[in-house]
Design goal:
By secondary structure, this protein is mainly alpha-helical. It contains 5 helices and no strands.
């Protein structure tokens, strides 16, 4: 398990991917702050778990984007940047399409 997570971090540990991760996270955070009713559980087509997933992806994108690398395996597993990047891309495509 450690080798898989370390491999994902090594694959994503490139400056352009870090910048992309940070920019996508900040844009998504800005979108949520601009119109929070689009992700609220009662006024949106999104369910509660989808909103939580977007918040997790924003946190993970910022953590990865600023260059922080968690040392413990459990935190590396929780803040793996590749799934967060995919969730951010899906969230922004939902937002703008």
């Amino acid at each position: 398990m450690r080798a898989v997570i370390a491999g994902l971090y090594d694959m994503m540990d490139k400056r352009p991917l870090r910048a992309l991760s940070l920019v996508l996270a900040l844009v998504m955070a800005g979108c949520i702050l601009w119109d929070p009713s689009r992700v609220a559980a009662k006024t949106s087509s999104l369910s509660l778990w989808q909103g939580l997933l977007l918040i997790w992806a924003i946190c993970t994108g910022v953590i990865h984007g600023v260059g922080f690398h968690p040392q413990r395996l459990r935190w590396q597993a929780l803040f793996t940047p590749l799934p967060a990047l995919l969730v951010l891309l899906a969230g922004l495509s939902f937002w703008f399409l």
